[in-house]
């Protein structure tokens, strides 16, 4: 499949595909994905980007095509970060406690093949941002995390919004 091809998954969602720089990690997401959040927290900044852009999906909807490079690092008492042990690409962020059966998995948006079709919903942890960080100009920015009443949209495929859900 070419990087810009979109195919329907068995769940009637357009499947997103992605991979790390070296190809040691390749995957397909066969379910909804959340709009992108840009994070400037200290952990995200230290994981290889001064401003990390992550989408989110249900863990059960991510299917590896190649997982030989996946390694996990416990970045806090309550979360882990996935990276490629060969090329070092930042891949995933996973909290130990989730509100969805099976859990959610944050996916680095830069891994996704075009067309991504996911808008930036918000910038978070702006209080930790470096002076050179630039959040998306059309998205709201919050000092820490977004408030409980802020709705982050989910998408059934690139550019295809679903009914909004709170707190992805």
Describe this structure in words.
This protein is an all-beta fold. It has one domain (14-142): Metal Binding Protein, Guanine Nucleotide Exchange Factor, Chain A (Beta Complex), CATH 2.170.150.70. The protein is built from 1 helix and 16 strands. The strands form 4 sheets. Strands 8-9-10-11-6-5-12 form a 7-stranded mixed sheet. The longest helix is centred in the first third of the chain and has 5 residues, at 42-46. The chain is globular and about 35 Å long. Mean pLDDT is 84; it is low at 1-11.
Question: What would a concise description of this structure say?
Answer:
With about 170 residues, this protein is an all-beta fold.
Spatial order of the strands forming the largest sheet: 8-9-10-11-6-5-12
Secondary-structure-based class equals mainly beta
Number of strands: 16
Give the overall form: globular
Order of helices and strands: EEEEEHEEEEEEEEEEE
Kindly provide the name of the CATH class: Mainly Beta
Largest sheet: 7 strands, mixed
Q: What fraction of the residues are assigned to beta strands by DSSP?
A: 35-45%
Helix content: under 10%
> Uncertain regions: pLDDT < 50 for 5+ in a row?
1-11
Number of domains: 1
CATH fold descriptor: Metal Binding Protein, Guanine Nucleotide Exchange Factor, Chain A
Identify the CATH architecture: Beta Complex
Number of helices: 1
């Amino acid at each position: 499949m070419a990087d810009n091809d979109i195919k329907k998954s068995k769940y009637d969602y357009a499947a997103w595909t992605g991979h790390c720089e070296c190809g040691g990690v390749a995957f397909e997401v066969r379910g909804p994905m959340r709009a992108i959040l840009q994070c400037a927290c200290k952990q995200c900044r230290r994981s290889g980007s001064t401003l990390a852009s992550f989408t989110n999906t249900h863990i059960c909807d991510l299917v590896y095509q190649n997982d030989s490079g996946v390694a996990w690092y416990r970045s806090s008492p309550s979360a882990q970060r996935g990276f490629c042990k060969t090329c070092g690409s930042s891949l995933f962020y996973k909290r130990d406690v989730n509100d969805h059966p099976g859990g959610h998995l944050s996916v680095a948006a830069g891994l996704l093949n075009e067309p991504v079709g996911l808008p930036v919903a918000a910038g978070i942890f702006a209080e930790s941002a470096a002076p050179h960080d630039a959040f998306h100009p059309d998205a709201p920015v919050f000092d820490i995390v977004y408030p409980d009443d802020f709705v982050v949209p989910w998408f059934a495929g690139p550019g295809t919004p679903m009914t909004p859900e709170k707190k992805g």
